[in-house]
Specification:
The complex is a heterodimer. Chain A is flat, with a radius of gyration of 21 Å. Chain A has a two-stranded antiparallel ribbon with strand order 1-2. A two-stranded antiparallel ribbon of chain A has the order 3-4. Chain A starts with 9 loop residues before the first helix and ends in a 5-residue tail after the last helix. Chain A is mainly alpha-helical. Chain B has an eight-stranded mixed β-sheet, sandwiched between helices. The two termini of chain B are 19 Å apart. Classes of the chains: A mainly alpha, B alpha/beta. The interface between A and B is medium-sized, with 16 and 18 residues.
Chain lengths: 312, 326
């Protein structure tokens, strides 16, 4: 019944039964990703690094279809008609079910950290600093900034707030530029303790840093970001590109699937998930890109509702 | 351990050695390519676990050049061994099978330094394979020894349950895959000649780069795309070829995931289903019992390893026939 003459069968890629429920698909996806990670000893002498990478891409693609109810239904139809599985997602017409749980966000108890909104920092990472731009302004120990800090924060809508800051928190965006390296301990019930290594290399003066990388500061752009009140998809993309963060990196760090990120950045409200999840995504994006997540969340959600295409 | 000690594992001893009404001997083979990963230890432990479940078992040491199984069992070398059968001195393999102190377990030793399994000629090999099926116990377990000689592969392929033992070291993993590839290709060769598709496969292998054939799975898919009927028959033949993966000397939790990863790699590379039947922890009790030349299952019956072996034995048996173990 599910023969495909050419093209790829996503069920075979994920090694999952045709009638598998969504949580099993998610489990198979997690397992497949772990299996074809380049450092898995099981790959030795069977797959080259490139082949493993290609397999990972295929697995990603398979899950982006099978992990979504609507896309999966369409794909099943295509398979049933005996056609080759379409490789490009763009060719599959999407009628996403907005009330369906986006399965990327289904927490899997067996994976440590899946109930946390932010990914666990690996010990080898030098710094993963939670961006608290809004807390900066309120902090009496803050060094004076040339960068105009955004207005003091209201309580964030659904994000776990970083609470007690143990020691003076420098504006992370300009901290690298000023070259001051302090040991910053952020203790919080939701975040793991992250300590900035004092042996971090000095950054060139006009380099900024966000949780996902460093970039060259353009004051004009920085002003635009801080003054902006309406965050829409294309502007978020502009910020992401400015900060030198690839879609891949953002997807991995924020644990938001690429398809959703693409939809988000192109204002494709029809294909975005339910509000509770969308808000989570926006908060994550704000954090990872180092912009005020409250502004992002409120303005984007309003935009989405106003468009009329975002059903919830 | 003498018979006066109450042994919770002992079932009705009279149930053993009952010859089946019809010849329904099931053969298990333990292979794995690499030497020293514990195949003899695994085969002897599985055999003893089977006897604890009331089955009659013959354990056969096919590691002809370097037979060790009698040492694992703590037995003296029997007066007659496999080489007596192979040379023709003994006609019936059952006469070579020696009873052991363990009720229900018979043992065939491969001990003879002069004869190596690779030196076994084709007619003797075929004769041995059919004789193994004629043994009068319910189960026959073959300890295959290291390497991928044709004879080793043929014994492996002749078994009903083909178990590959792997340890989490890259060398062992590499050898296990080599063993799997060799046995798969040997099976493919057999299927080829039966189906008459040698020419088709040769053409495919000559042009494999243009056709994008990188793995056996691709080859089989290509055959199916060219000749659907032959492809279907080939798939049938390959479908009965299934292997079981058994991890030994596992030290960390992550090591246990290796079985699942290998299962997935086999599916993607060969297109065959393998089963991950379980893992055995690395345990000091193993070398301690070996030094004493006593089987671990008897010497340390409450060790967690014994529990793991029992679980694996259950997985290898028909799962519907046993509901609870002990």
């Amino acid at each position: 019944m599910f023969e495909t003459k050419n093209g790829v069968n996503y069920y075979e890629v994920l090694e999952v039964a045709y009638d598998a429920p969504q949580h099993e698909v998610h489990k198979a996806y997690t397992r497949a990703k772990a299996t074809y990670a380049s450092d898995n000893p099981a790959l030795y002498s069977m797959f080259t690094v490139d082949e493993a990478r290609d397999l990972l891409k295929l697995i990603e693609e398979a899950y982006s279809v099978l992990g979504n109810h609507g896309l999966r239904r369409n794909y099943d139809e295509v398979l049933r008609k005996g056609g080759g599985a379409p490789r490009k997602l763009a060719s599959v017409s999407v009628e996403a079910d907005h009330n369906a749980l986006p399965d990327f966000m289904v927490p899997d108890p067996s994976i440590p950290g899946s109930f946390e909104e932010t990914p666990q920092a690996k010990p080898s990472n030098v710094t993963q600093m939670p961006v608290q731009a809004h807390a900066v302004a309120a902090n009496p120990y803050m060094a004076p900034q040339t960068h105009s800090a955004p207005a003091p924060a209201q309580a964030p809508v659904e994000a776990p707030a970083a609470e007690a800051v143990a020691s003076p928190l420098m504006d992370p965006i300009h901290a690298a530029a000023t070259g001051k390296r302090e040991s910053i301990l952020v203790t919080n019930s939701e975040f793991t303790v992250r300590k900035r290594e004092s042996t971090m290399p000095l950054m060139p003066p006009d380099t900024g840093r966000c949780p996902l990388g460093t970039y060259k500061i353009d004051e004009g752009m920085e002003n635009e970001i801080s003054e902006r009140t309406e965050f829409d998809g294309p502007f978020l993309q502009k910020v992401r590109v400015y900060k030198g963060v690839s879609l891949e990196k953002l997807s991995v760090a924020s644990r938001i699937g690429k398809t959703y990120l693409i939809a988000l950045e192109s204002n494709d409200f029809k294909n975005l998930p339910a509000p509770v999840f969308l808000r989570g995504f926006l908060v994550q994006m704000g954090k990872q890109l180092g912009i005020d997540e409250n502004k992002v969340v409120t303005s984007y959600m309003n935009l989405a509702k106003a468009s009329g295409k975002y059903g919830s | 351990m003498n018979d006066n000690t109450p042994n919770p594992f002992k079932l009705n001893p009279k149930a053993h050695n009952a010859a089946p009404a019809f010849n329904s001997t099931t053969v298990w083979a333990i292979g794995g390519g690499k030497g020293g990963i514990g195949k003899s230890f695994i085969s002897s432990s599985l055999a003893i676990c089977l006897t604890r479940m009331g089955k009659s078992v013959t354990l056969v040491d096919l590691d002809l050049g370097s037979a060790n199984l009698h040492t694992c069992l703590g037995m003296k070398i029997p007066s007659q061994t496999l080489s007596d059968f192979v040379s023709g001195r003994v006609q019936n393999l059952n006469d070579v099978a020696a009873p052991t102190e363990i009720p229900g377990l018979n043992f065939i030793s491969g001990f003879n330094d002069a004869l190596n399994i690779a030196d076994l000629d084709r007619s003797n090999k075929d004769r041995l394979i059919s004789a193994l099926r004629g043994l009068r116990t319910q189960y026959v377990i073959l300890d295959l020894g290291a390497g991928t000689s044709e004879n080793t592969l043929d014994f492996f392929l002749a078994a009903d349950q083909k178990v590959i033992a792997v340890t989490p070291e890259p060398t062992s993993i590499e050898n296990a895959y080599r063993f799997m590839k060799s046995s798969f290709y040997r099976k493919l060769r057999q299927a080829e000649s039966e189906l008459g598709i040698q020419a088709l496969i040769e053409t495919a292998m000559d042009a494999k780069n243009q056709l994008g054939i990188k793995s056996p799975a691709d080859l089989v898919r290509y055959v199916a795309s060219v000749d659907a009927a032959a492809g279907a028959r080939l798939n049938e033949k390959i479908a009965d070829f299934s292997m079981q993966i058994l991890l030994n000397q596992v030290r960390t939790r992550q090591d246990t995931e290796l079985g699942h990863s290998m299962k997935s790699v086999c599916k993607k590379y060969f297109g065959i289903e393998t089963e991950y039947i379980g893992y055995i922890d690395h345990d000091n009790a193993v070398w301690q019992s070996l030094r004493k030349r006593r089987p671990l299952v008897i010497e340390y019956p409450y060790s967690s390893i014994v529990g793991q072996f029992l679980g694996i034995t259950k997985n290898l048996l028909n799962p519907t026939s046993l509901r609870a173990v002990i």
